[in-house]
Specification:
By secondary structure, the protein is of the alpha+beta class. The protein has 19 helices and 21 strands. Helix 2 packs antiparallel against helix 3, helix 3 runs antiparallel to helix 5 and helix 6 packs antiparallel against helix 9.
Length: about 550
């Protein structure tokens, strides 16, 4: 990568790319990043640091994730092996199409309440990562999060903004008794906390302590599982203790495509990382040399639209997919889809390959271990359900299930739904380049593709790759552009038939983190998202 050229990229912020040798943590909250670095300094490795950072994020960024989240991880170990962890949860055994239909939902799963709650995977992810790769105990790695929850912390600007938005929505929509604990926990004074205001939660602290002391058994088999079971049963939910007891995260082999000499790695379905890979497959033979070029924007958008059309039709838990990952990622299918990209914007439709879906963090240590980790509730605070007295905010991932019985992603008991959160990883010639990710719902594969192309095609350093203006395909021919995209490109895309909307609200374009490693020196270089309260902690 031409780092000299990258440092002079005109859209780079005033912050420079960060360099270190012994360890680095990049995430969306400074206090969480610092906690991960403290764990490295206490003798932990990159995996321990990732767990500590993730647990802290449930406290210092509850607008995006919580103890009741799902999680995914890609781990690159010092022996140059890559591992994937799918810690998304299944639908409860009582949650079926018939049961949901009887509640009056026939076209779409609800967003809020207990109905869309699936089994949370994040605590099991922390325990599994710690057991397989960690050097410290889970109790040690969760200790910083316990302290932050118990002592409190001052709320940061971006966090306060999204907290206020959630409070406004929840105050209007969530009137039932089952939502009272959310307001007791996250708005104890009757409002969302202001910038700089202290917020704390003894419930979070106590729960995190119990998870750490029992290697998460308290959450899935003990008193926390009992509390979830009792609350769900009392309020007509579907999740039960048996669902929690039966849960195990799954170690998986990451999938990849080779893009211009680099291997781009994602977690296989039920995650939507494959969408980024499919889009890159369509573009790998194009010569992209100038980033701010309307033809380049056009091709990227068209490739992503086609990949999303396939993803929305086929991606679910892998054994329920009607077509295989290999077929969707094949060269022959990529060429077939690439041939559909013309000079004008198209309305995407899924193809037939048989004829030929938050918080994110990156960590690295001085030994060569690196982690790409993501966890999320969904739609901000998730379901709006908090188990009273525990701080456990439950996700609403079941909202993504289809209620069409013939769809690959149709709701079924014990099934995992199409999932939006995806960690990414880049390698080259068998050496780690490093972890990357862009959180933010269906923006995530779009952000992954743009970050990879910024790095590989346009030679941008990690900070510049994140600072660069972004686009987001919404649906049909609708494309959202950041205000920093040059006006001549917006006009040229509109002339090609794209329905362009330019916005100054950068929050919808995702929030990313990157750490790259120099294979010769081991020096780490990191970038953090300018669209949030991002930070890099390093030494």
């Amino acid at each position: 990568m031409n780092q000299k050229e990258a440092l002079h990229y005109p859209y780079a912020s005033q912050r420079n790319v960060q360099f270190a040798r012994n360890g680095m943590v990049a995430t969306s909250q400074p206090l969480a990043a610092q906690a991960g670095l403290d764990i490295l300094k206490q003798g932990g490795n990159a995996i321990d640091a990732a767990i500590a950072t993730a647990a802290c994020l449930t406290v210092v960024e509850p607008t995006s994730n919580g103890i009741g989240s799902d999680a995914f991880a890609i781990v690159w170990t010092k022996d140059k092996e890559i591992h994937g962890l799918n810690a998304s949860g299944q639908a409860p055994s009582k949650l079926s199409l018939d049961a949901v239909n009887k509640l009056g939902y026939e076209k779409e799963m609800p967003k809020f309440g207990l109905t869309p709650v699936t089994v949370p995977g994040a605590p099991a992810a922390w325990a599994s990562l710690s057991k397989k790769f960690g050097k410290l105990s889970l109790k040690q790695t969760l200790a910083p999060a316990v302290k932050l929850a118990r002592d409190g912390f001052p709320v940061s600007p971006t966090l306060s903004f999204y907290w206020q938005k959630a409070f406004e929505v929840f105050s209007k929509e969530l009137k039932e008794e089952q939502f009272k604990a959310w307001f007791d926990t996250f708005a104890p004074t009757g409002k969302a906390p202001e910038v700089g205001e202290m917020w704390k939660s003894e419930g979070h602290a106590s729960t995190l302590e119990k998870i750490g002391e029992t290697d998460a058994n308290a959450f899935y088999q003990g008193e926390l599982a009992d509390a979830i079971h009792a609350f769900s049963k009392e309020h007509g939910g579907f999740i039960r203790k048996k669902d929690l007891e039966n849960y195990e995260p799954e170690w998986v082999d990451p999938i990849n495509v080779t893009y211009k000499g680099y291997d781009v790695w994602e977690i296989p379905p039920n995650g939507q990382g494959m969408i980024a890979l499919m889009a890159l497959q369509m573009l790998k033979d194009d010569t992209q040399t100038v980033r701010e070029d309307e033809a380049s924007y056009h091709k990227q958008i068209e490739a992503m639209k086609l990949a999303f059309a396939d993803g929305e039709k086929y991606i679910t838990e892998e054994q329920h997919m009607s077509t295989s990952v290999d077929e969707l990622l094949s060269d022959s299918y990529a060429k077939k889809r690439r041939a559909l990209i013309g000079e004008e914007a198209l309305t995407p439709e899924a193809g037939d390959p048989k004829g030929s879906g938050t918080v994110y963090l990156s960590t690295a240590d001085g030994e060569g271990n690196m982690v790409s980790f993501i966890q999320s509730n969904y739609m901000g605070f998730g379901s709006g359900i908090v188990i009273p007295g525990t701080g456990i905010s439950l996700q609403n991932r079941g909202h993504n299930f289809s209620l069409d019985a013939e769809h690959d992603n149709a709701l079924a008991p014990g099934k995992r739904t199409y999932h939006t959160i995806i960690p990414g990883f880049l390698s080259k010639n068998g050496e780690a380049v490093g972890p990357f990710g862009v959180m933010g719902g269906f923006m995530q594969p779009q952000g992954h593709m743009q970050v990879v192309m910024n790095t590989v095609d346009f030679h941008l350093n990690p900070q510049a790759a994140l600072d660069a203006p972004r686009w987001q395909w919404m649906k049909g021919k609708q494309v959202l552009l950041e205000q920093s995209v040059p006006n001549h490109i917006a006009l040229a895309l509109a002339a090609r038939g794209h329905e362009i909307q330019v916005t100054h609200q950068s929050g919808s374009f995702g929030r990313g983190q990157i750490i790259w490693r120099d294979p010769k020196t081991g020096v780490l270089q990191g970038g953090t998202e300018p669209r949030t309260d991002g930070a890099i902690a390093a030494y």
